[in-house]
């Protein structure tokens, strides 16, 4: 496959699945600038590792894995300022979908609770909220399906306690 056809194929896949990257960005960022920076960094990492995608899993599963790993790696640092490589050199023309402020407002309280979780728990919640089957969650996170179920049940209890602290 030529470099140009690879770029075209990659751009098409990113445009079709960019919602995944936006969802990862929403979970790990608090403002539009950080969201855009993380979006660009995730797309860059996806491009850099595109040759490693073998098709053993769905593209979306692989995309979640790369996106979550990129976000966790960048945002584990207390500075919260990731080093950003510019995509301009690659000349991709990917149109970003607009952020829906109404949807973001509706999930504000849940996001506040989710932000109190550790990085791995946040990633599990994101995948769970995407209604991915536990098999795919496990594959994305690199854990067993049973482990994914157990961790998710613990996270649900933790969130329930955070959102309803006075309820027994």
TrEMBL record:
<dbReference type="Pfam" id="PF04542">
    <property type="entry name" value="Sigma70_r2"/>
</dbReference>
<feature type="coiled-coil region">
    <location>
        <begin position="103"/>
        <end position="130"/>
    </location>
</feature>
<feature type="domain" description="RNA polymerase sigma-70 region 2">
    <location>
        <begin position="13"/>
        <end position="80"/>
    </location>
</feature>
<feature type="domain" description="RNA polymerase sigma factor 70 region 4 type 2">
    <location>
        <begin position="109"/>
        <end position="159"/>
    </location>
</feature>
<keyword id="KW-0175">Coiled coil</keyword>
<comment type="similarity">
    <text>Belongs to the sigma-70 factor family. ECF subfamily.</text>
</comment>
<dbReference type="InterPro" id="IPR039425">
    <property type="entry name" value="RNA_pol_sigma-70-like"/>
</dbReference>
<dbReference type="InterPro" id="IPR013325">
    <property type="entry name" value="RNA_pol_sigma_r2"/>
</dbReference>
<dbReference type="InterPro" id="IPR014284">
    <property type="entry name" value="RNA_pol_sigma-70_dom"/>
</dbReference>
<keyword id="KW-0805">Transcription regulation</keyword>
<dbReference type="Pfam" id="PF08281">
    <property type="entry name" value="Sigma70_r4_2"/>
</dbReference>
<dbReference type="InterPro" id="IPR013249">
    <property type="entry name" value="RNA_pol_sigma70_r4_t2"/>
</dbReference>
<protein>
    <submittedName>
        <fullName>Sigma-70 family RNA polymerase sigma factor</fullName>
    </submittedName>
</protein>
<dbReference type="InterPro" id="IPR013324">
    <property type="entry name" value="RNA_pol_sigma_r3/r4-like"/>
</dbReference>
<keyword id="KW-0731">Sigma factor</keyword>
<dbReference type="InterPro" id="IPR036388">
    <property type="entry name" value="WH-like_DNA-bd_sf"/>
</dbReference>
<dbReference type="GO" id="GO:0003677">
    <property type="term" value="F:DNA binding"/>
</dbReference>
<dbReference type="GO" id="GO:0006352">
    <property type="term" value="P:DNA-templated transcription initiation"/>
</dbReference>
<keyword id="KW-0804">Transcription</keyword>
<dbReference type="GO" id="GO:0016987">
    <property type="term" value="F:sigma factor activity"/>
</dbReference>
<dbReference type="InterPro" id="IPR007627">
    <property type="entry name" value="RNA_pol_sigma70_r2"/>
</dbReference>
């Amino acid at each position: 496959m030529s470099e140009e056809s690879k770029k075209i194929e990659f751009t098409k896949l990113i445009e079709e699945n960019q919602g995944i990257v936006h969802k990862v960005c929403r979970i790990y960022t608090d403002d539009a600038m950080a969201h855009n920076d993380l979006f660009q960094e995730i797309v860059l990492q996806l491009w850099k590792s595109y040759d490693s995608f073998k098709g053993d899993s769905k593209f979306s599963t692989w995309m979640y894995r790369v996106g979550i790993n990129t976000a966790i790696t960048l945002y584990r640092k207390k500075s919260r300022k990731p080093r950003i490589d510019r995509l301009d050199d690659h000349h991709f023309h990917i149109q970003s979908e607009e952020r829906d402020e109404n949807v973001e407002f509706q999930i504000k309280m849940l996001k506040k609770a989710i932000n109190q979780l550790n990085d791995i728990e946040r990633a599990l919640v994101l995948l769970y909220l995407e209604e991915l089957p536990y098999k795919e969650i496990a594959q994305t996170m690199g854990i067993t399906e049973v482990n994914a179920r157990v961790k998710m049940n613990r996270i649900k209890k933790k969130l329930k306690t955070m959102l309803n602290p006075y309820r027994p």
